[in-house]
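fwd from M.: "can u put these together and see what the complex looks like"

so here's what she sent:
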Amino acid sequence: MSTKTPSTEAVDINDPKLSRFEIIREGARRDDIEIVHYEPQFPPGSKAEKRMVRIVATFFLITGVASLAFLGVFIFWPWEYEHGAYTLSKFYTPLLGVTLGIALLGIGFGILTWAKKLLPHEISVQDRHVGTDPESQKLTGETALYMLDELGLKRRPLLKGAIGLGLAPVAVVAAAPLIGGLIKDPHGEERQSMYKTGFNPVYNDGNLVRLVQLDGSPVRPEDVSAGGQITVFPGIAHGNTNEWADSPTLLIHLREDDARKAAAAADADEINRGAYYGNYVAFTKICSHAGCPASLYEQQTNRLLCPCHQSQFLIIDNARPVFGPAHKRLAMLPIDVDSEGFFVAKSDYKETVGPDFWERP
Amino acid sequence: MKRRKLDLGAVPGNVARGADERLQASTPLRGLLNKVFPDHWSFLLGEIALFSFVVLLLTGVFLTLFFDPSMREVVYNGSYPGLRGQMMSAAYASSLDISFDVRGGLIMRQMHHWAALMFMAAIVIHMFRVFFTGAFRKPRETNWVIGVTLFLLGFFAGFTGYSLPDDGLSGTGLRIASAIMLSFPVIGSWLSSSVFGGEFPGMLIIPRFFIAHVLIIPALLLGLIAAHLGLVFAQKHTQWPGPGRTNENVVGERMFPRYAMKQGGFFMAVFGVIAFMAGAFQINPIWLFGPYRASEVSSASQPDWYVMFMDGLVRLMPDWDIFIPLKIGGGEGYVIPPMFWPAGVLLGVLIVLPMLYPAIEARLTGDKRIHNLLERPRDNPHRTALGMMAVSFYIIATISGGNDVVADKFHISLNAMTWVGRIGLLIVPPIAYWVTYRICLGLQQHDREVLAHGVETGIIKRLPDGRFVEVHQPLAAPDEHGHTHLEYTGWVVPKKMNRVGALGPAIKGFFFPIEKPVEAPVSPGHPPVDPAAKREEVGSSH
């Protein structure tokens, strides 16, 4: 079976004696295609063929039934959310999916059976023309070069310079507004500065910022039981929203022994000296690795785990990273209690909060 | 005026002539209808990606009609009681509305998500097919590069789409994306603040991602898919070696009607499977995650599967930062965070290296010829082994992306899982290389053994001297040493007795036979060409 045989002579397609298949075959031959094998899979009218026809018809009928079922469910089934475990509306989406799936699979399998079993099986061979025509390539190349010659850039060096100096800048004109409009200085003195959080007194008219809970209520020391921890936010407008995504802080009430160790470690550190209040410490919740809220606190080991990439921080040692990809410790928020007995931040964080970056001070 | 009688038989011819005189389409159209496609089940993998993409477009259009890409804070008042009265972004609220307050909205959302996962999975497996069979070789290097780019675009399409609902899980993903941008040396903070329009999260990221997800990336995808298919069309499919198949021809069936019809059927089947999964299997139940809040995250927060390898690489990276004690520019020194290596450099390498692979292989082997015949993976053990090395690397990275879940479900220490990943990432790929290489050689060896000795029959014979030998069925007439000298052609060698015609084919019919059992074993191979005279039943008469 090769492309060369059978090398039938070209036939006259207007010859009335030719069958339609022979004309088709001649058309294919003119497209360099040789139909070398073509036969129905079953004898026409045979039992096997009739069976296949029935199967295809069944698939299409299944599609009809499933489509109607889909429409029925879509229109009549209660679809609005109802509270409860096994309400009817819980089955709305599954029923839609199952009926639509069956309907589409019915079409798919029907067509597949039709094509694979009922259409004649064939083997055709088409030439690829792998070797390209070197003569044509030469002609194309020379044509292109001739166009360049005619421009005469070689003979007119001034034009070359003018293209370089005059036209090159326009190449970036399209990009300039697009990119230029997007560029934003990360160090601007706007509210969203990378080096300030909501605990900065600047945002509270110069007053110390209270530590508040998610609902905005200020926190007293007795609100956190020993060994417990809560998430606190700066007590300013929108301080508990994503506008202040770097501000969420973990306030931890350490047990007596741990608190002593934590205090000693903090006092030994230049930045964190005296940043705790009694047995209470506050660290940023934003992981120094990728910025996820590191919030899985293990009381027994005093470790804080970030669930995103498993960085672990030792709270009683200035929240030093002890495992995982984080290399920077969590910043400590200096805290105190104001005259009304509520927690306040003595100042903003003294270290940068959030994921680490190139020019971090 | 006399009305002429309409000659029905002449209508098709007249229409065709009329169209051809205006559009000059008849010859190209015949070439298209007649174009020959070789067929193999593995060629379907790329088509599954294409079909999923169509489903993505269809369902995506529906979703845009209801989605509000805004980070404006609103109070939720919809049907889901668990979140009623809460403050959330309009994007999240409208995603909840699509799930609960739009008739059929949830199934569309789930179909869109399942189709996206299917799209990426089909791309990856299609890439395996192309890589392991050497289908990327000249002249198809360009299409390989386009394919890798399509994977990358699919990755970003997936990530931007995943971020749009602004739920607790996707917001965390965005936060990590911002951290990845921040980790780039020198430009990091500029990059992040430019993309987010200020410090994370700002008010712009969801509208920006929306435009990227529904306009920019789909437009690029459409253009590249068109180029991809156009090249496949122009270069014609590769084919497996086999009888009559050469580097210069294509053996298969003409596109119309059978091949095209099968493709239509497969499209409906893929569509149906996606619809079924969307109904039966819940995906991304955003109402359980709550709105994104910078202070909240749950354990077991995993991205979609095609992003997990990156998350895994980030998890495995040790805490190695590079500190540069340069006190210029008012800083106190500069730092390259550890995040930069897995998420910046390694991702770049993992994209560029596959793109360059065809050029690298051609350079190393010196093979600059045109290849239209596929290679069986066993016939190029180096490439297969390299591919398995990459696959094992990818699998370990992906598993590590869920190592907290593995640790939790199998009661393994979390830290141990991290170490297993770190060490595994270094030693498993070389082991995979060696094992694959040996398996390939073994398979080659066995093929050649069958060609030299024949098929194992399972019949044990005792020789007069007491030895037991297995009887082999030679594939050709053996010489005096019992060897046959058949050449290995790069295609399947029969290894079972019924493949050489020792048994008749199975009789068709489920309850009753619908055909007569064959009387004698038939020989395999293609029947000869029927003479044209016997074909009268095929075409109808004129």
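replying to her w this: The CA atoms of residues 452 and 484 of chain B lie 5 Å apart.
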